[in-house]
Each structure stands twice: as structure tokens, then as C-alpha cells.
Amino acid sequence: MKTLILGALAAAAAVVGGAEAQVRTDYHMHVHSPAILKMLPAYCGSPARKGACDPRFTEPLTVDDLLAQMDKAGVQHGWLMSTAYLARSPMMVPALPDAAQITRDANDFTVGLARARPDRLSTFIGVNPLAPDALDEIGRWKGDCAVTGLKLHLTNSEVDLRDPAQVQRLAAVFKAAADNGWTIMIHMRTRAADYGAQDVRVFLKDVLPAAGQQPVVLAHAAGWGGIDAVTLDALGAFADALQADPKLGDTLRFDLAQVMTDKTSPEDRAKLAALIRRIGPDHFLAASDWPFSGDLKSYFATKFAWPVLTPAEWSQVTNATVPEKTSCKR
Predict the structure, then answer these.
(1) 90, 99 in Cβ contact below 8 A?
(2) In the CATH scheme, what is the homologous superfamily, with its name and number, of domain 2-318?
(3) How confident is the model at residue 6 (pLDDT cuts 50, 70, 90)?
(4) Do the strands 252-255 and 216-218 form a parallel or antiparallel pair, or are they unpaired?
(5) Residue 323 phi, psi (nearest 5)
(6) H/E segment holding residue 78
(7) Residue 254: which of 323, 185, 195 has the closest Cα?
């Protein structure tokens, strides 16, 4: 029986790349700048953090390491997210006196990687949307065609979507990014224990309209990796909204970075699959959150091989794209 089960799983993995061979763009990747690497020991040891940092998060990996992984996995292009927002994180206690400069240096570094390899990398700068210099940092890059978009991390920035003043500031950041012609990648899940549909409703009403017609990608399928009740609640609220107003689907996408893990129960995988079908597999993006994924080839061959979707549905995911809506000619 064990042999039969292992054989079936291997066959499923083979069918989906299957999946491995078909992933041409990884829509969520990171390479820390030297400025961020320098501050990580203090950040990871901060008393405001809950638990230690993942060792893969602190490893001093380079863009050459990333490109080698992409080559091995057959990934032709990657969306590279700056981790500059870490410098302004409230989890950094005590706060860094030179946080603004670290933010600038980190974004300069990441954009420089895309300038050097525009054939392989698209760059997203990062800011804490509540930081006093967030809008200035976004404005600093206006008109620079080396920048594809903006990465926001609401958990790390401790944004509260139930605080009207913070929601207003987040919307202003969305508008500034949209005025630059950028795509916005947002890790939307907050630190609220009961995060879910109520936060999605606020986001759809008071934040998303500020993006206009620019694409917005919800990282980790609107969660923070893995599948749990609150992530399913949030994604279900997006499914409801898209069914009520299908035009939202013109600009909204969801990446699947680190969503399916070995710890995910069959029941939660089935629930996720049902929501993917409601929203449409072509609205979900292949993504790894490298280096958290570990070996890219193995990640796409296994984490994108669960038999919760049909091979045809997985093909829609691995071939999904983000609409290019910008005046900048890259």
C-alpha cells in the first residue's frame, strides 16, 4: 500500500511539471542588501519579535545565488522584492537612528540588481507605509523605469487595518505608487489574531480604490504563508467581492508563495482549492518567497504538485500573468 501511495504522489508531481518545467516567472523573491544584512542580528534579537528568525532569512545569499537557483529550476524571470521595509519596522527595538538611510540604501541596492540584469529581474522597492519618509521614498523613484513596483509588508510594519488613520496613510501610499505607474505587492495579513474578512472589506473599500487601474498582488494568497482559518476567511471575502464585481479581477492577483506546506491538512488544501476555483486559477501566481523556499527546483516540483487542482488548473496558475498597466517603457 505504501508503495502505491508513493507512486501516486510521484505521478502527480510528474504531471504538474509539469509544474516545475512550466514556471517561467517567479513572482516573489528576495535578496537582502548589505545594509539589511548588517542590521539583521539586532532585528532578529529584538525583544519585540516573537521567536527567532528563520535561518534562511539571515543567510548572506547573493544575486548570483538566486540566478543559479533560477537557472537550475528553469525560471527565466523573477520579481525581486526589496526588504528595505525592515529598517522601519516597529519590531526593531530600539529603533535604528539611521533607518531612513538604510531604507534608501536597501532600495538602491535592489534596483541596481535589476538594472544589471533587466532580462532576469524586475524590482520592487520597499517601505513601511506608516513611516514618515514613505511617500518621499516612493517619490524618489518616480519615472525610473528600472522599478516595476512597490512591496508592502503589513505584518512587519504593524499596520492596523481597523485604525482609520492608518488606513488613510496606507491609501495615500497606494495612490503614490499608482501615480508612479507601479504594480503593488502587498503582504496584507496583519498581526490581528482575528484577521480575516473584516480586514478585506476595509481594504477593498478604503485602500484598493487608491490604486486605480494599477495591478495589485496579494502575497501568500492574502495570508502570511501556510493555510489556516483566518487566511481562508480573508481569501473567501476576496472571492465574494470578485463574484459581486468581476471587474476587480482586472487588476487583482494572488501569489501562492509558501502557501502549500507539508504541514497543511488535506481538509485545508481542499478548501484552498475551492477558493482558487471560485476566484479563477488564472488569478493566482507561481511564487516561492526565495530564499524561504529553499531549493527552487525542488520547491516547484513538490509544493506545486499537490493533487488538489487538476493539471489543467495548475497550468493556468503557472502560466498566469499580471496585466502591465504603466506608462513606463521597460
Answers:
(1) no
(2) Metal-dependent hydrolases (3.20.20.140)
(3) very low
(4) parallel
(5) -60, 130
(6) strand 77-81
(7) 185
